[in-house]
Amino acid sequence: MAPRELAVRDLHAYYGAAHILFGIDLAVPGGSTLALLGRNGAGKTTLLRSIANAGVRTTGSVRYGETELRSLAPHKAARAGLQLVPEDRRIFTRLTVRENLRLAGSGASPDRPAVGVDRILDLFPMLKDLLTRPGYALSGGEQQLLAIARAMVANPALLLLDEPSEGLAPRIVEQVGEAVRRLQSEFQLTAILAEQNTGFAVDLADEVCVLDGGSVVYQGRTSEFAAAEAVRHRYLAV
Amino acid sequence: MIVIATGLTDGMLLFLVASGLTLILGVMGVVNFSHGGFFMIGAYLGYEFLRGRAVSTWLFLLLIIAASAATAVVGLAAERVLFRRLYRLPEVTSLLGTYALLLILEGVAQLIWGQNPVTQPEPNGLVRVFTLASAQIPRYDLLVVGAGVVTVAGLQLLIKRTEFGRQLTAVAEDRFMAGLLGVNVNWVFAATFALGIFLAGLGGTLAGPTLSMVPDIAVTFILQSFAIVIVGGFGSVLGSLIAALALGLLHAYLVTYVPSLADFSLYLLMAAVLVVRPQGLLGSTALLRETR
After folding, report:
1. Looking at the predicted structure, is the pLDDT value of residue A220 above 80?
2. Which of A78, A199, B229, B236 is deepest in the core (most CB within 10 A)?
3. Per residue, what are the HEC states of B249-284?
């Protein structure tokens, strides 16, 4: 099935009494990748978790094609084609690499059957030698690659990656970038890549969205973003 | 030899109850005080299914499995009505909630079966003893130990080799991420709870012929089972097995050779293990933190 558009309308998000996102409107065309940029605390992680309906109280609308994701429990959202790779990777430490990968088959949807672990290993060859290693014995870079590979086993149509380059050495960041590129060419995906590493994200994206203080302050094509010097200076410069 | 046989039998009965308790604690993070109540319900249901009659060994086995399954059905109802509401609440709330359920189960048992002890005879064919190394060992002990061995092997296969086992391990460690990956966490909770209560019921039905049944056995067994879970390590089935067998053997030894200390065997074992390994024999200090 072809990837569909993700449409976020007037999305507000709350942790307890704290109001975090303020009326987000966002559209990601089917099959494209959006770089979600912003400083620490801008609301990137909360937006991804709100889209996945993962532990955030929200109002508004999050539609993937015809499906309203806000009404779905996380496991049902996964079966509707959504996968979120969280910032802290959350590898199951007591399962091996192979078991982590096989577990994700639970999230495949009837119209997008699970991808075989062997095919995923062709895309992430560095995991081939680690299959019997338990999650707790992996380095940060290995964990990140496994987290992305694990999400892809479910053959998602909508992939949300939260800070995949965070805390990784430059050489490993390059490997993660190559892995994402391979996924974009091999799978039909709509993707959001939340990043503080602007260059890394923009290189991989078709569109850019900048968040600040829980609101969208910029959205445009990657080519236009290159010229938006004022936006970069005001909202992204450290 | 008789000390070893008695110790292994008592230990296996304790293990059956404690293994369910440790599964529920490890996966859901709920300290289930009502577990002893389900053990007691299992014992009484076994008595009802067998109607207090001595039957053939095969019919006995069939009926104790049916009684354990019936106990699991009662457990599933409790999971839907009570436990599902406890998973996200603080420990003190789940302690109070499950203790209340223990009292309710005891009350229900008193209403149905009264306070007078009832007894369940052993199956025909397992009444007699057999001789091993000049010791007279009850044949029924073999059945209990065999059931324990089959349970250990079955649980290990289930947890290590099946899709459900992977899901159970993942949910125990990080239910949030398991849900994001598509695991139906509520279903895993319900299935784990039913399995745990089935094991409590199995312990109860197998213990039936070894004790005189009164509703109070619920409390006696839950205290010992908690000690086993603590000594074995939270969430570790193998740890529970080792701790239960150690307690059974220690108690049988002390009863025979140092009777004045026999009542303290539970505390002696806890003190000896926890001084050296506060997390229990095979426990991880991270487990409880991770299941929160």
Report:
1. yes
2. B229
3. HHHHHHHHHCHHHHHHHHHHHHHHHHHHCCCCCCCC
> Cα-Cα-Cα-Cα dihedral of A69, A93, A147, B180, to 10°?
-10
Q: Are A75 and B179 in contact (CB under 8 A)?
A: yes
Q: What is the pLDDT of residue B66?
A: 96
- Rounded CA separation B100/B94 (Å): 10
Q: What pLDDT was estimated at residue A238?
A: 67
Q: How many residues does chain B have?
A: 292
3-state secondary structure of A29: coil
**How far lies B211's CA from each of A131, B43, B208, B215, in Å?**
49, 10, 6, 12
**Residue B246 has what pLDDT?**
94
Q: In this structure, how many other beta carbons lie within 10 angstroms of the beta carbon of residue A4?
A: 20
Are the C-beta atoms of A56 and A13 separated by less than 8 Å?
yes
pTM of the model: 0.89
pLDDT, tens digit (0-9, with 9 covering 90-100), for A98-153: 999 999 988 787 777 888 899 999 989 989 999 999 999 999 989 999 999 999 99
Residue spans of the domains in chain B: they are 2-219
pLDDT for A17-47, tens place per residue? 999 999 999 999 999 999 999 999 999 999 9
pLDDT tens per residue across span B149-163:
999 999 999 999 999
- What DSSP character marks residue B148? H
The CA distance from A79 to the nearest CA of chain B, in Å, is 6
Asked whether the beta carbons of residue A75 and residue B166 sit closer than 8 angstroms, the reply is no
Tell me how far the alpha carbon of residue B208 is from its chain's centroid: 14
Report the alpha-carbon distance of residue B231 to residue B270 in Å, rounded. 6
CA distance B118 to B51: 11
Longest dimension (CA), chain A: 49
In angstroms, the CA A87 to CA A147 distance is 10
Residue B54 to residue B124: CA distance in whole angstroms: 6
ipTM associated with this complex: 0.91
Q: What is the DSSP letter of A25?
A: E
Shortest Cα distance from A117 to chain B (angstroms)?
A: 15
**pLDDT over 90 percentage in chain A:** 68
Written as six digits, the tokens of B153 are 């092997």
Cβ B226 vs Cβ B244: under 8 Å: no
pLDDT < 70: residue spans in chain B: 284-292
Alpha-carbon distance A183 to A189, whole Å? 8
| pLDDT of res. A1 | 64
Residues of A in contact with B174 (CB under 8 A): 90, 92
- Cβ <8 Å between A93 and B173: yes
Spell out which residues of chain B touch residue A87, defining contact as CB-CB under 8 Å: none
